[in-house]
């Protein structure tokens, strides 16, 4: 069962876990936890690919990684979008507040 959890195909992981539950090899709760871990691993791999391709900065990747590992994002794209939006908001805040601080 563990080998299928290493698959980059989320549907293959889900099918394998469903099978494991059906034959009594694990409980549904265990399967749910394994699926969450597998999906996080897949998302982190996608995040790594985005870094290597130069699609995001190291800072954005670090924030996206944090969001994934804390469960605040469910996919690499969701984490990247949130990390990018957070950085843009920070830059806007600084640009807006700087004149007020003078």
Task: Write a brief caption for the model.
The chain is mostly helical and 102 residues long. It is 77% helix and 0% strand. Helix 2 (10-22) packs antiparallel against helix 3, helix 3 packs antiparallel against helix 4 and helix 4 crosses helix 5 (76-100).
Structural overview:
The chain has 102 residues and is mainly α. The chain has one domain (2-100). The chain contains five helices and no strands. The chain has helices at 2-5, 10-22, 28-52, 58-69, 76-100. The protein starts with a helix and ends with a helix.
Strands, helices and their partners?
Elements: H1 2-5, H2 10-22, H3 28-52, H4 58-69, H5 76-100
Largest sheet: none
Q: Helix fraction?
A: over 70%
Number of strands: 0
User: What is the rounded Rg?
Assistant: 18 Å
Number of domains: 1
How much of the residues is beta strand, in percent?
under 5%
Shape: elongated
Low-confidence stretches: none
Q: What's the number of helices?
A: 5
What is the average of the pLDDT values? 85
What's the end-to-end separation, in Å? 62 Å
């Amino acid at each position: 069962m563990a080998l299928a959890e290493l698959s980059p195909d989320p549907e293959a992981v889900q099918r394998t876990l469903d099978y494991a539950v059906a034959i009594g090899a694990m409980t549904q709760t265990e399967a749910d936890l394994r699926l969450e871990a597998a999906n996080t691993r897949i998302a982190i791999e996608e995040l790594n690919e985005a870094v290597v391709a130069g699609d995001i900065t190291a800072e954005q990747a670090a924030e996206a990684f944090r969001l994934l590992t804390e469960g605040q994002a469910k996919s690499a794209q969701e984490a990247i979008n949130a990390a990018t939006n957070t950085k843009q908001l920070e830059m806007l805040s600084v640009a807006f507040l700087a004149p007020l601080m003078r």
